């Protein structure tokens, strides 16, 4: 479907008859106007010669003006019918596809019948997803988003944030986020489920630790650091998180060995043996 392509035609017979009737009435009104103008000219000459009264002159003027107004009214009526005839051709406002047809050919429809077709443009797609209130502050308009589609697990595409709702849902405590992605070839379809990964920050050259190495004792995260065969419980400060990895901002140095499994029965100062 291309822009301007005819999608449907509405029966025009009634409009055509109304147009013929209006044009015939306009011809009659134009003749009446011409006659009224000539009569006004004659009455004007007689008035200057004081043959007729001012009242008769006013009547002639009124008939001339009324005849001219009748022609103008019919001109407007003809233009309206012509516009209605033009509206009988339903054309595509943009390129795309007809996704749904609500009526079969020949069915009677009226102004209150609702839409007759549903059109979609798959050149770009809009992704709608809820964002938690804690993450909302990290998003901004124009931010890059990586989109993956369940139907194409080996394919991902980059989009951009185009809208962030200023209001949170009072039940879910989330805000709506809209992302626009290109769709060359129309491979992705409207209604597909997607996954979105948003890069909210970039921390390079930092020390990271796996989530499985963290021990939550009390309110602070800790790790067991092994040195000289002894495990020491040490609190660490964490920063940015990316998947199972956490940025370590304090409490641990690069190169130190930490316990990553089997520390459920460990305690501070326990003797351990490292298995390579």
UniProtKB/TrEMBL annotation:
Pfam entry (one): YknX_C
- Domain CusB-like beta-barrel stretches: 129-197
Where does the record place the YknX-like C-terminal permuted SH3-like domain? 207-274
Task: Show the GO cellular component annotation of the record.
Answer: efflux pump complex
* PANTHER family associated with the record: HLYD FAMILY OF SECRETION PROTEINS, MULTIDRUG RESISTANCE PROTEIN MDTA
In terms of NCBIfam families, this protein maps to: RND_mfp
Identify its protein family: Belongs to the membrane fusion protein (MFP) (TC 8.A.1) family.
Q: What protein does this entry describe?
A: Multidrug resistance protein MdtE
List the source organism: candidate division TA06 bacterium ADurb.Bin417
